[in-house]
Amino acid sequence: MPHQKGIKVIAQNRKARHDYFVEDSIECGIALFGTEVKSVRLGRVNLKESWAQVRKGEVWVDGMHISPYEQGNIFNRDPLRAKKLLLHKSEIRKLDAQVMRQGYTLVPLDLYLKDGRVKVRLGVCKGKQVHDKRDAIARRDSDLEIRRALRSKQKG
């Protein structure tokens, strides 16, 4: 199969952007088995409840659900197994230092294909308080109303 050029987004973690302030993000590879890659290419991935952590100098994603490949039979893996992220040592040390700060966590934001390879955008995030979430919702609603008003004014 020839490599496909460009970026194709497979899954996004919209809940992460609602629940966290994204301070920084980094692109990293992910170690998957063949049937998992086939399932990812079909878009059978859920990032909703996933998180990442640094363990023994390696970064692992937990809670990422990759559905079993239908034709995979005995080669299918556990859908919720921990998956290793591929990063340089210096990047891992930097992420570990950022996470050690109070209230920060690593959250997968996107899963996508880049030139035929599966990549994960990992965000260094700080949790939002309830009032921050309300402010974000109010801001989004007001922006939507402004856009609607401008659209109706241009038509009329």
Describe the structure.
Helices cover 33% and strands 37% of the residues. The chain has 156 residues and is of the alpha+beta class. Strands 1-8-9-2-7-5-4 form a seven-stranded antiparallel beta sheet. A two-stranded antiparallel ribbon has the order 3-6. The chain is globular and about 60 Å long.
Q: Encode the helix/strand succession as letters.
A: EHEHEEEEEHEEH
Q: C-alpha Rg, in Å?
A: 19 Å
Task: Bin the helical content.
Answer: 25-40%
CA(first)-CA(last) distance:
51 Å
Mean pLDDT over the full residue set: 85
Structural class: alpha+beta
**Low-pLDDT runs:** none
Q: How many strands in all?
A: 9
Largest sheet: 7 strands, antiparallel
Explain briefly what this protein structure is:
The protein contains 4 helices and 9 strands.
Using brief descriptors, characterize the structure shown:
9 strands; 33% helix; 156 residues; single chain; 37% strand; 4 helices; alpha+beta
Write the layout of secondary structure elements.
Layout: E1 7-12, H1 14-19, E2 20-30, H2 34-41, E3 45-46, E4 51-55, E5 58-62, E6 65-66, E7 83-86, H3 89-100, E8 104-114, E9 117-127, H4 130-155
Antiparallel strand pairs: 1-8, 2-7, 2-9, 3-6, 4-5, 5-7, 8-9
